[in-house]
Structure formats: structure tokens, C-alpha cells
């Protein structure tokens, strides 16, 4: 039985309830009991939070935990500890594992491993197609019943348009979310970074933005035709270009129930980060231009982009410390996402604190139909306490992740997670794993 916890005098920010006020928060039996100006009830644990912000636990709907298959990159144990330190109390893990999450057995494996070794909630995203091969659909109904929360072949696009159509039609039966990795492989083949002035200057083969945008347009058109109202929904992963934002905005204005996400590296870095052949800046989709970054920020401000996800993609040193064309794509991000948002978006007054918190709690929860990202009484007691003024230099060598592939090493950041509570249990205390 979890202990009762009283959080005193923190600035409680909960977009799901339109709350932003100094108050107390009481946790009992692993649930949010009440939040009000002053709570006199005595608790077994009291945490003073004056000068701190109290938030719903962050929800990451795009995490790569590499389990099963690559414990040298990440494990559920290490990945969830990195998540907890970063303020994430719920992570949805992508299915490009070995074997992929495309059968009942692998879904059950992930959930049982998370229960044994994880310190935050782990929700598996299952494959759209068996083996992520883009051909035969998985048993969506069965996988949903076992605990899958959405479907994606992330890491690979569903190239076959007819297969994506069938996936949407099948998902209609269950009201399931289809998460699209938008990439035209014919256009991106052999590319290593964004195609443009920087790729020409450094002599690396580029990936044209159309490689993303063509597939965004295709899947929006498919969803418009084949996702029934109240049925399947389309969610577009890791949006990185200005035209992708424009296409999604237009679809939303037309009344389509499409959602999307971006990641911190797409509003903090440009393709110039690749100069010097920095393989930690090699990601897929690639870092784009200043105008794309501006469009991503604009999309966050006007609500076109629903969620900020990490796309936490751990790789070994051996996979990154090689020639640029041979290096794996991806970067870790669970421990830097919130500080980057607070430093680059909130501190600059690009987003209000409430807008930023919404992008990392209630909005991603709505996108995947999760009952998370809220401090409503009766909800699971997933709570974080953040010191918004703490300034520090990020040191990737101290990460809880098994991997070290971050381009943000040495960055000066503001905002640190002091306490993380998952289901009423304190898993991070004073900024360290409890």
C-alpha cells in the first residue's frame, strides 16, 4: 500500500482542468485525492514545494526502449529510469525491436518486463504490419485487448498505399490510432541529412523535405477517405518540415481528426548541427533549416502540433563513433526534453508554461486515448515537482540511459525535475533515483 503524500504550497499547473494556481495536493492510495488552497489533512509524507511547479507526470508517446533485442542500447529498466529523471511517468514504446512488437507474446513480454523492472508506466505500441514489412496486417483487436495502445511501423514507413488503406479500415473496428512514420524511401534512399545548402557545403547526400511531406499528404488523404468518424484516427510522428505543418493545419481546418507530434530537436537545432560530421545530430527525419524550425514553433503555438514527444532513440558508441554515412540515426532525449522546453520555449515566452505542459501531458494523452496527464481527483497519482529556476550544464555521461548519443551535451539548461511520483510511489527524490 503506497503512503499518503501531501505536496504543500506548489504552483499546480494542470491544463486538463485549466488549473494554474498555488495550492496543496494530496495523494492517497496511489490516487490523486484532492487539490485545494490549503489541505489540513495529515499525511505520512509531506513534501514542501514553495517556489516549485507541480505538474501531471509527463507522457511520452514516442520512446524507443530497444527491448526486446538490444540490451546494449537500452533496457526497460534503464530507459524507464531515464524517463523518471526527466519527469516522464508514462512512456509509449515503439515496436521496432527484435523481434518487433507484432504478436501477443511480445506485447505480453514488454508488459511483464515493465512490471518487473520498470519504474514508470510502459505502454506498448504494436506494429501495423507483421515484421514491420508493410504487407500483412497484425491482429489489432487482440493486441489492443492485451494492452497495446496504438499501431505503428515506426522506423519504417508503410510504403504500400493499399496496405495503409487496409490498416485504417481495419482499425476503424476498434477506434485505434495509426501512427505514421512519413518517409518516401525512394526520395530518402542514401540520404544522410537535410538536402540544402549545408549538405552541399559539407558534402553529404541530402534527404529532400518532400520525402516526409509526400507521405504526410498521402496519409492525410487516406485518412480522409477511410477513417470513419468515431473510428480509426491518424497520428503523424516526428513532424520536421514547414510544409508538413501546413498540410496538417489544413487537414485540421477541414475538420479531420488528425493529430501529430514533434520532438525537441526539431525546434532547437538546425541542420548546421551536423557540421563537423557530428553523428549525434544524425536523426531520421533529419534536422532541417531555420525556416522549418520557425514553422515547427509556430505550429506548437497555434495548436497544429498537438504533442512534444522525445523520439528517444538510444544507440551504442560503436554505432555513432563511425563515418557519418555508416552512423545510426537517432538521439536520446528523455532527460533533456522538459529542460529544453522550459529553456527554449517557456523562458523565451514562445509558449506559456500551461501551453508547454499541455503539449507534454494532456494533449499527448488525448492523441492516444490514454487516461494519463491529469491531476483530476481519482486519477492515478503520477506527479512531478520541478524547480523551474535551477540552471545547470547537461552532462550526458551522468544519464541513466545505457546510451550517450546526445547533441545537447554541454548545453546550459534551466529547469530540473526534483521529484517524480508514479502511482503514488516516489521514484525520484531530490533529483535522484529513490
3D architecture notes:
The protein has 434 residues and is of the alpha/beta class. It has a single domain (57-367), classed as Metal-dependent hydrolases (TIM Barrel), CATH 3.20.20. The chain contains 14 helices and 19 strands. It has helices spanning 76-85, 104-117, 140-146, 161-171, 185-188, 197-202, 210-226, 242-253, 265-268, 290-302, 317-320, 337-346, 353-360, 362-367, and strands at residues 5-14, 19-28, 31-36, 45-48, 53-56, 58-63, 88-93, 121-124, 151-152, 177-180, 193-194, 206-207, 233-236, 258-262, 307-308, 383-393, 412-422, 425-429, 432-433. Strands 1, 2, 3, 4, 5, 16, 17, 18 and 19 form a nine-stranded mixed beta sheet that branches. Strands 9-10-13-14-15 form a five-stranded parallel beta sheet. The protein has a three-stranded parallel beta sheet with strand order 6-7-8. Helix 8 (242-253) links the parallel strand 13 (233-236) and strand 14 (258-262). It is globular, with a radius of gyration of 21 Å. The two termini are 17 Å apart.
pLDDT averaged residue by residue: 98
Secondary structural class: alpha/beta
The profile of the biggest β sheet is: 9 strands, mixed
Q: What is the 3D form? A: globular
CATH class: Alpha Beta
Question: Strand percentage, roughly?
Answer: 15-25%
Query: Helical segment tally?
Result: 14
**CATH topological fold name:** TIM Barrel
CATH superfamily name? Metal-dependent hydrolases
CATH second-level architecture: Alpha-Beta Barrel
Secondary structure layout:
Elements lengths: L4 E10 L4 E10 L2 E6 L8 E4 L4 E4 L1 E6 L12 H10 L2 E6 L10 H14 L3 E4 L15 H7 L4 E2 L8 H11 L5 E4 L4 H4 L4 E2 L2 H6 L3 E2 L2 H17 L6 E4 L5 H12 L4 E5 L2 H4 L21 H13 L4 E2 L8 H4 L16 H10 L6 H8 L1 H6 L15 E11 L18 E11 L2 E5 L2 E2 L1
Parallel strand pairs: 1-4, 1-5, 6-7, 7-8, 9-10, 10-13, 11-12, 13-14, 14-15
Antiparallel strand pairs: 1-2, 2-3, 5-16, 16-17, 17-18, 18-19
